[in-house]
TrEMBL record, chain A:
An annotated GO BP: transcription initiation at RNA polymerase II promoter
Region feature Disordered, mapped onto this chain: 266-288, 338-374, 391-475
One GO cellular component term noted in the UniProt record for this chain: transcription factor TFIIE complex
Domain HTH TFE/IIEalpha-type: from-to ranges: 6-137
Pfam families according to UniProt: TFIIE_alpha
Record key words, sorted: Transcription, Transcription regulation
Bias type Acidic residues, positions: 430-440, 463-475
Presence of keyword Transcription regulation: yes
Stated name of the protein: HTH TFE/IIEalpha-type domain-containing protein
UniProtKB/TrEMBL annotation, chain B:
Domain of life where this protein originates: Eukaryota
Organism: Vitis rotundifolia
Keyword Endoplasmic reticulum attributed: no
The family this protein is said to belong to: Belongs to the eukaryotic RPB7/RPC8 RNA polymerase subunit family.
GO CC terms of this entry: P-body; RNA polymerase II, core complex
One Pfam family from the record: SHS2_Rpb7-N
Keyword terms of this UniProt record: DNA-directed RNA polymerase, Nucleus, Transcription
Name the record gives this protein: DNA-directed RNA polymerase subunit
GO molecular function, one term: single-stranded RNA binding
Function of the molecule: DNA-dependent RNA polymerase which catalyzes the transcription of DNA into RNA using the four ribonucleoside triphosphates as substrates.
Residue ranges of domain S1 motif in the record: 79-156
Compartments (UniProt record): Nucleus
Biological process, per Gene Ontology: positive regulation of nuclear-transcribed mRNA poly(A) tail shortening; positive regulation of translational initiation; transcription initiation at RNA polymerase II promoter
Main localisation: nucleus
Length: 475, 176
């Protein structure tokens, strides 16, 4: 987990976007002395060298007033660059933090401090690298989009303004604004001539919307976009470099402290840091005893996983030749045995019983297999019956066809000998012939059954199994 | 976009229509009342295609009028943002041009017309490219994209753009 590229990203972003941010309010007069532009960059840079840091300490290090620092940090919190944490703690509670700091550095543990039970609110802050990455990307995206949209005038509703009374209209009002006398829009209240108004970046000094101004505006926008590309190139490069790296994650303050302490302990090999973290749980954490938040692991063990795996394995074994479901198999298809699913049974039986060790498991699976076999057999018999029925129907339909559609040529009848009901209906649609699928519906006996059979055929059709038939239809 | 939907309306029928042709009169009145109207919710009612059912009439006290709840099927036209339409130009001015796609009016402002087209005023105001090959004037047919709609209770107005791929003039007016 390397922080360096991310730090570079933060530094670049700071210089690109927060260079001239001042935390002073606008109402205060800016004198040369109180001008604190650039503070933001300094603070961000300082944060890249730290992890979680107590704001007072940071202020001390930067020789800043803590108020000023806090204002800057609040700004960054709003910008989603830093996460902050506030907590009331005793001097002792604060010591955990000190311990953690000591652990991240290679310094020794600090000794016991004074035991005053006095609560202070301390604030901590830390860079949130994952969010920074997203925020910077989003910012760039928005910038580019704004410029591009403006450049192409995409999806913008033109606004008009009355120079006399300042009333604003947009293009949706256009119908009410046209006047009969001339070709301009007129204000509803004062009948003044409206001018196209745009509050866009580039057109601030160019008021009128005539063609020349428009062209100039476009040039300016293009220029701006280009400049942006050039100036932000290092930042974008850094973004793309960082893209696939794991983001350094410090977690919440507590998690970080716990982790840092644990790491420190492991490194130093002594256990006297233990008590500080332990004692603090009661006092400092405010009743949230979760010192190892970051390291919880959940493992879920599925029962019966073995059986499933077996199943999927045998599937994979003959995945190259996919087993067609029985209802898809019809006469006239030349399939391998695997495709018909005949071999599958045996292979499954063999492989499923072999690797299972415990007799208990074995019993259950063999039971299952038997059950499955039974079901399969039943299903097979069922589909066989359906196939038979289809054939019967086909015969019946053919007779019907011969009777009712004598005008259909012989060739059609000849080739349709091994065709089925559903396909015929399809061909009918193709040829735009009269719909004798309706006619044959009653001959198919049970209505719902026939519908089902038709449906099945249609599905088989959709899978595109017999191509030559389809070719013939089109020919 | 066109939709075929079922709508309901309470029709008031004058007592003089009561008789053998009550239903015919009712339908005729419905067609006359409804076709060509616009509701913000459903759009323009283009045509009534059928009557679903006519409910029980209710005689109004005092007037003798009878109110029938009528369910009818109709074709409605509702423009949507992002939809591509073909429209006929009705007016061209400096601010852009107006076009009609059936019942709906569309305004294309001049900044949504490609930059290479310039406004030419005169007898027949138009927008023309510098080489004069493409010209938008009254009665030209254009293909445009709707980028905004204003939907009031009783009217729909759209603004469109022809500043995109495959948009613009598709047919010049028939010169006669």
């Amino acid at each position: 987990m390397s922080v360096e590229p991310f730090n570079r990203l933060v530094k670049l972003a700071a210089r690109a976007f927060y260079d001239d941010i001042t935390t002073k309010g606008d109402n205060q007069p800016k004198t040369g002395r109180s001008d604190n532009r650039g503070i933001a960059v300094v603070v961000l840079d300082a944060l890249t060298r730290r992890q979680w840091v107590r704001e007072e300490d940071l202020a001390k290090d930067l020789k800043l007033h803590s108020k000023q620092l806090r204002r800057t940090l609040r700004f960054f919190e709003e910008e989603k660059l830093v996460t902050r944490d506030h907590r009331r703690e005793t001097a002792k509670g604060a010591k955990i933090y000190s311990a953690a700091i000591a652990a991240t550095g290679d310094g020794q543990q600090t000794k016991e401090g004074d035991e005053k039970i006095k609560l202070h609110t301390h604030s901590y802050c830390c860079l949130d690298y994952a969010q920074i990455y997203d925020v910077v990307r989003y910012r760039l995206h928005r910038m580019k989009k704004k410029l591009k949209d403006e450049l192409e005038d995409k999806n913008t509703v033109q606004e008009y303004i009355c120079p006399n009374c300042g009333k604003r209209y947009n293009a949706l009002d256009a119908l009410r604004l046209i006047s009969m006398e001339d070709e301009y829009f007129h204000c509803e209240s004062c009948n003044g001539e409206l001018v196209a108004e745009s509050d866009k970046l580039a057109s601030q000094e160019i008021g009128d919307g005539d063609d020349n101004a428009r062209r100039r505006r476009r040039e300016k926008l293009k220029d701006m976009l280009q400049k942006m590309e050039v100036q932000l190139k290092p930042l974008m490069d850094q973004l793309s470099r960082v893209k696939d790296l794991p983001v350094p994650e410090f977690g919440s303050l507590q998690a970080w402290e716990a982790r840092a302490n644990a790491a420190g302990r492991a490194a130093n090999g002594d256990s006297n840091a233990n008590d500080s973290s332990k004692s603090s749980q009661g006092l400092g954490f405010g009743g949230t005893p979760m010192p190892f938040v970051g390291e919880t692991k959940v493992e879920v063990a599925f029962s019966g996983v073995g059986v499933k795996e077996e199943d999927s394995k045998s599937e994979i074994a003959n995945a190259s030749l996919k087993v067609l479901p029985p209802w898809m198999i019809k006469e006239g298809m030349n399939l391998t045995k695997e495709q018909r699913g005949e071999i599958k049974q045996e292979s499954k039986m063999g492989s499923s019983s072999a690797p299972l060790g415990s007799s208990d498991d074995k019993k259950s699976t063999t039971n299952k297999d038997e059950e499955k076999n039974l079901q399969d057999e039943y299903v097979k018999a069922y589909y066989a019956a359906i196939l038979k029925r289809q054939q019967e129907q086909e015969e019946a339909a053919k007779k019907q066809l011969e009777l009712s559609n004598a005008h259909i040529s012989n060739s059609v009848l000849g080739t349709s000998s091994n065709r089925q009901v559903g396909m015929k209906s399809k061909r009918d649609e193709d040829e735009g012939d009269d719909d004798f699928e309706w006619e044959e519906a009653p001959t198919a006996g049970n209505k719902s059954e026939s519908f089902k059979v038709n449906d099945l055929n249609v599905q088989a059709d959709a899978s595109g199994d017999d191509e030559d038939d389809i070719d013939w239809e089109e020919g | 976009m066109f939709f075929h939907i079922v709508l309901e309306r309470n029709m008031q029928l004058h007592p003089r229509h009561f008789g053998r042709h009550l239903r015919d009169n009712l339908v005729a009145k419905l067609v006359k009342d409804v076709e060509g109207t616009c509701s913000g919710r459903h759009g323009f009612v283009v045509a009534i295609t059928g009557i679903e059912n006519v409910g029980k009439g209710l005689i109004r006290d005092g007037t003798g009028f009878v109110t029938f709840p009528v369910k009818y099927q109709c074709v409605v036209f509702r423009p949507f943002k992002g939809e591509i339409l073909e429209a006929v130009v009705t007016m061209v001015n400096k601010m852009g041009f107006f076009a009609e796609a059936g019942p709906v009016q569309i305004f294309v402002s001049n900044h949504l017309i490609p930059d290479d087209m310039e406004f030419q005023s005169g007898d027949m105001p138009n927008y023309t490219t510098s080489d004069g090959s493409v010209k938008i004037q009254k009665d030209s047919e254009v293909r445009l994209k709707i980028i905004g709609t204003r939907v009031d209770a009783t009217e729909i107005f759209c603004i469109g753009t022809i500043k995109d791929d495959f948009l613009g003039v598709i047919n010049d007016p028939v010169t006669s």
